[in-house]
Amino acid sequence: MSDIPANLRYIDTHQWVRLEGDGTATVGITDFAQEQLGDVVYIGLPELGAEVRGGEEAGVAESVKSASDVFSPVTGEVIAINESLEDEPEKVNEDPYGEGWLFQVRLADPGELDGLLDDEAYAELVAQES
């Protein structure tokens, strides 16, 4: 069973978002997603200052066996990207909820998180797809 932290919100394309408490949020791909991808060899991230929209493509994750679009769970301005992934994309496999985070956004609407999946709903989704 994939690791599914209770303090995050999720979308059905297997990205997570963590509210940071200052109007910003951190985004990454889930443990289930990195397991499905296999060994990640490249992460394409949005540009600093770019506007991302909830549910829309914001980047790409490429592995030795496939490529997958990365979607933003929330709408907002990209204020940070995980630059270490350029040289160490394997961090996404090793620590998807920690050092493998992808980008941070200044939220356009913090209430948007209320419409996302909680850990139990996401666990049900993963169980159906496994």
Query: What proportion of the residues form beta strands (DSSP E)?
Result: 25-35%
Query: Quick check: average pLDDT?
Result: 95
Distance between the termini: 9 Å
Under CATH, the homologous superfamily reads RNA polymerase II/Efflux pump adaptor protein, barrel-sandwich hybrid domain
| Estimated radius of gyration | 13 Å
At the first level of CATH, what is the class? Mainly Beta
User: What is CATH's topology name?
Assistant: OB fold (Dihydrolipoamide Acetyltransferase, E2P)
Shape: globular
Order of helices and strands: EEEHEEEEEHEH
Number of E strands = 9
Helix content: 10-25%
Q: What is shown here, in short?
A:
The chain is of the alpha+beta class and 130 residues long. 17% of the residues lie in helices and 33% in strands. It contains 3 helices and 9 strands, in the order E-E-E-H-E-E-E-E-E-H-E-H.
